[in-house]
What does this fold into?
Amino acid sequence: MVDTLIRLRDDAASTAPVVPFADLGEASNATAVRLSPGDDARALLPLLDRLELVEVAFPAYTDGRGYSSARALREHGYTGELRAVGDVLIDQISHYHRVGFDAFLPNQPITREAVDKAIHTWPEVYQRTVDGRQPIWALRHG
Amino acid sequence: MYQYDTHDQTMVDARVAEYSDQVARRLAGTLSEEQFRPLRLKNGLYLQLHAYMLRVAIPYGTLDSRQMRMLGDIADKYDRGYAHFTTRQNVQYNWIKLEDSPAILADLASVGMHAIQTSGNCIRNTTADHFAGAAADEIEDPRPYAELLRQWSTFHPEFDYLPRKFKVAIIGSETDRAAMKLHDIGIQVVKNEAGETGLRFYVGGGMGRTPMIAPVIRDFLPPLQMISYLEACLRVYNQHGRRDNKYKARIKILVHELGADEYRRQVEEEFAHVLTLGLEPPPAELARIKAQFADPGFDPAAPDAIDLSDPDFKLWVDQNVHAHKVPGYAIVTVSLKPTGGIPGDASADQIRLIADIGRDYSFDELRVSHAQNIVLPHVKKADLYAIWQRLDAAGLATPNLDLISDIIACPGLDYCSLANARSIPVAQKIATRFADIGRQHELGELKLKISGCINACGHHHAGHIGILGVDRKGLENYQLLFGGSEGADTSLGTIVGPGFTEDGVVDAIEKATDVYLAQREEGERFLDTYRRIGTAPFKEAIYG
It folds into this structure.
């Protein structure tokens, strides 16, 4: 099997079993969880210190709920790995990165090189998100 | 008006580079049509019935003469010598070649224009009152907020794959000229009792197959929290809007199903969180944008009188010229609805002529109205006659603003792959039937709107008279609605009865106008009479 996981992090990948969000109540010590599009990411907020991997599933790239889930987790201080999994395409990588994803497990393999290029699609950005970039309004006004 | 700085230019240039690369990959065959489709749609390129259609954004409907001229030049260079102005203050070209599209975007970028987010399930081009900055009844020019919103929504990473498309309209007057309550979000600039400026948010309006008038979700928001509040509104929608059924995916369904109070509660909860994140541009940014929308150098000594001795000129002034906030000035609407023409279409030469008139007489500023006309917002009354003569010579002085022949129509089955019926020929037949301008004036304000399918791009729900084209057993059939309105008195039209053929619907409208003329009371418009006497007398005349 070809390993298609691309990580933009330096730490070692989690080896913990990934528990579906719905089963989290049963697995009170889980450190890796998978969110599906309908899951409310805010339910993870009390567990953020414990989690080292959150997978966000994209069954179809057109379902954008995972963008909000990811950004909300980062806004609330999650620093572990945030992995986009599924119908993850190169043309959406820069948006994924801007809302806090730092790992990708696409159905169709994409190269690390293409990911690095995609992240730099926009020389500047208009919004402040969770990627640390200064928005254009901040560049204008110092 | 707003001018791009190097940051704004960098963004559109980057987009042109990205898109050119995508088209090159498509033409070389390394991108399949299936892979390319979502990418071209992010740039407003649709594959229609006969060719590609390119939709170009005109943010909040404001543009200068250089930009308008470019729209004409593109029509000549890449299309068939004309362009179509839409109900969303955009412009569409109907005969585009894929291989030309990168060059068109580069031409647009050279004058600070683009086709970004003119399609797809994202935040679309923000529309605004087409009389903004000029209207006599304005509280504040809404366009600085619209520009702030344009920048925030451009390539917003969280909201590019919403459940469905998302449209925002913004106004700064008590009079709603932008159908604001029929948008996903409508924003109205208001003043509170202390005289402070605020924003009132209406969320969950829309047309389409389930028309709804938006409820007020926030009565008064400090302007410097607009972006944060929008983030909250959109995040709640992105997470909870329905994705199981395309026809129930707009935010109006979410607000309706949750109820306005529960939607508001969720937004307020998210808003409290967002306010801690520092997402709001600083006051200096709003001030920078506002400075660019400052009044042009109006002449305080401009004479206020107009010589109306030429009766044809008087007819046009009475119908197509509105009061301006500054004495000696006026707002001119250039009708793109000549009798028997295609509503919203203009030739390349006409577009360039309007650009020249805007440059020479309107401080280099033009507007596109959602009623598919062009506005010259700041014209000296003393120049009106000269302007009228130039427009008249080009077939652009039809004195029919807000009359029965000032029809809003979607492109319909002549162009659109979603349509069930043609819209344009119906509009042409109605305008021809009522060609006598004296008769039109006798009928007074009568807003007639035609959609070629249930998606309602022609705003038929909001027409005093609305027409909806449907497919009935393979034949085009037209349903008639009465009583819609989009202004301060927003209401949704109701279907009168069984549908008609193309000629039948024209006859039915004529009968309805006869009922109005016979029954109206002093000062009543068609809409007022209909509201007073109800459907029955109209039904009897049409079907009896």
Q: What stands out?
A: The CA atoms of residues 171 and 188 of chain B lie 5 Å apart. The longest helix of chain B spans residues 6-28. Chain B touches chain A through 34 residues (CB under 8 Å). Chain B is about 35% helix and 15% strand.
